[in-house]
């Protein structure tokens, strides 16, 4: 069996001279490869990325973190001029998420990716968690990469939840690099983990045929050093492998059914 193909949603950033580039971070690609997947970068083409063309070729969909924020108009809030948004990524991922889950494509959202799952299911975001009464500051500290991605706070894993079953743990300590967070949970989503201030740190799509999980932290960083990070990627890729097996079996049947030329 060849490696499952994992579509990784790119950001679209203008890096120089008004030339936009499609980007994904290297740690996410490395984590997918270590767990046995074949990363395939999905350009942020919005509506030009045909789901009918794409989804039958994908074994998994991964939505990585990003410095950019989801356009607040996507969840009914007002835009502010200085917000760093990425409309093309929004147009790509927000349309793709539910289509992927409905097609049985395993889905894994990290940080912005988890926020995208929430918005795709009709949820809203708090745009500055550190300013919300009773909330902790979830932003990263200044410093080198080890400091930025340091274990920052515990999260409690939901009783009877999927993450608790996977890890056998009641809580894990996670890194934290975000200033936005889930405000209203989307319809059809379940809480999988909470921070000490009650902020939702992980969620799951209820009734999804396969892995459909979002986490607010970054398991791709120091993959083998944190208790839940490698198991998360391994479980995601295992689900993708299962889809690949079924997908290739279906393909073989349809090829056998092709009439043999006389
Ligand atoms: N901009 C949003 C999402 C935060 C996020 O995804 N951070 C990732 C930072 C860079 C990385 O390591 O990918 C927010 O601030 O809430």
UniProtKB/TrEMBL annotation:
Keywords: Hydrolase. The lineage of its organism: Bacteria, Pseudomonadati, Pseudomonadota, Betaproteobacteria, Neisseriales. It comes from Crenobacter cavernae. It holds the Pfam family Peptidase_C26. The keyword Electron transport does not apply. PROSITE patterns: GATASE_TYPE_1. One of its GO terms (molecular function) is hydrolase activity. This is Gamma-glutamyl-gamma-aminobutyrate hydrolase family protein. SUPFAM superfamilies: Class I glutamine amidotransferase-like.
